[in-house]
Write a structure and sequence with these properties.
Helices cover 42% and strands 6% of the residues. The protein has helices spanning 14-17, 42-50, 57-64, 68-80, 89-94; strands spanning 25-27, 84-86. It has a two-stranded antiparallel sheet. The protein is globular, with a radius of gyration of 13 Å.
């Protein structure tokens, strides 16, 4: 069961709308000189541990036996807080 992310993250927005199930995600690099702390519930930790630049949103949902919508809601919050980022296939593949 997913925990409520309403107190941690803004509600899903256009970020979720443009985030299809086949998109690959990765954890964002820390910003220089910025100290930050993350406070995630166990369900959010399960998702973030699978965000490795190789798993798609669909893969994560299948791995955790969750709906793509539930994963997308959590991912949307993580994108909004810049904890993770969407990999740009054409840019990242060339790097």
């Amino acid at each position: 069961m997913m925990c409520s992310t309403s107190s941690r993250f803004p509600p899903p927005s256009s970020t979720t709308d443009r985030c299809d199930a086949d998109v690959t995600l990765r954890r964002a690099e820390p910003r220089d000189g910025v100290e930050s702390f993350i406070d995630l519930c166990p369900a959010e930790w399960e998702i973030v541990t699978l965000i490795d630049g190789m798993h798609s949103l669909r893969d994560i949902a299948a791995e955790l036996a969750l709906s793509e919508f539930e994963v997308a809601k959590t991912v949307s919050g993580m994108l909004s807080t810049e904890l993770i980022e969407i990999m740009q296939a054409n840019v990242d593949a060339a790097a």
